[in-house]
Amino acid sequence: MIRTLIIDDEPLAVDIVREYLSSFPEFQVVKTCNNGFEGIKAIQEYRPDLIFLDIQMPKITGFEMLELLDNPPAVIFTTAYDEYALKAFDMHALDYLLKPFSRERFANAIAKYRQIGSAAPVMPSFDDKEIRQGTPRRIVLKVKNEIKIIPFHDIIYLEANDDYVNIYTAEGKFLKNKTLGSFEKILDADTFIRVHRSYIVKIGMITKIEPYQKDSYLLKLQNGETVPVSRTGFPRLKAVLGF
Predict the structure, then answer these.
(1) Model-level pTM?
(2) Residue 32 sits in which domain range?
């Protein structure tokens, strides 16, 4: 039996997937959810083999939900928006069903699962294609057993930490499994600047620039913390601040 989960905030869309799945008795719908938070809990509880996932949902998007999963199941996206297709396939989706989809198109997606199955893991990542398909404006991460959403405007600075990034806000420090370079691509260049290979700073938080060592400087921030500026970062900083 193939354990299946449907995550969609539109009851009609859920009913259609259920109806189409009834033609494939080996697929068992173990749960339906109407938002990403419910989806995460259901995936942890039922360990489905396959999920049908909407993208635009209340609270968090389907993409953001997948980022919070350590070992996501196989995914078939079901959405009314065609502009997310490139990103969906970058995330190794099995298929991308554009609503309203026919029974025949649905059967093709099931055939792909039968052929590929769980051999196509979802591996979320920020890249140039994601930027072209719509830049995210927030960060979604797990803090212990809770989900934290950080709008970009709350970020004070970012610090590289091996394969992770420390995100500093007025509430404290949070850890995200991303590279600093991936954040540099999606953050607004008029608001944030990379001043060091290990640091990106919100420009509006800078209060003072002080000499530190030969050809290097320290930034003083509004929250009282300091951030180093590298030799290559200083010319960029001068250009942005206009001095």
Answers:
(1) 0.63
(2) 2-119
My answer on whether 115 and 6 are in the same domain is yes
DSSP 157-191: EEEEETTEEEEEETTEEEEESS-HHHHHHHS-TTT
> Is 48 exposed, middle or buried, given 0-12, 13-18 or 19+ CB atoms closer than 10 A?
buried
Alpha-carbon distance of 106 to 96, in angstroms, equals: 10
Number of domains in the chain: 2
- Domain for residue 112, yes or no? yes
Q: Is the pLDDT of residue 128 over 60?
A: no
Which is more confidently placed, 7 or 235? 7
> What is the average per-residue pLDDT within 72-100?
85
Q: Is the sign of the CA dihedral 94, 36, 106, 113 positive or negative? A: positive
